[in-house]
Amino acid sequence: MNLRRRFGLYGIGFAAGIVIVIFILNGKNASCNYMPNARMLEILRNKERIYSDEVLQIMASEKIDTTAIVNMLNNGDIDFSKSKVHQEPCRYYWVDGFANKKETSLYIQNCDTVITIQNIYFDK
Fold this sequence. Notes:
By secondary structure, this protein is an alpha+beta fold. It has a five-stranded mixed sheet. The protein is elongated and about 70 Å long. The relative contact order is 0.15. The protein is 43% helix and 27% strand. It folds into two domains: 30 residues; 90 residues.
């Protein structure tokens, strides 16, 4: 069997496999988050959110709504050097992003079923 025929057969099998995978995963909420930042942000997004009283006051004074927080959890970056990832029973994460075109950081407590946004910081 020559090389051209091998590549042709491989291409046909590869294409058939892709089509099968697309049909199997179609309509399912499947994702492939391999990096620690993406995995942790997805975990934080999928839990119920509670806002501390201090955060609610800051959000009211800075005119930030909950969609800005959700946007930060979608597009933000976790600073693992500032986070307390080995603390028990709840871990703490530092998420950097933008809210109302300002550099903003969230300090989030991650427990089993709920996350609590403890504080919001703005870079001047």
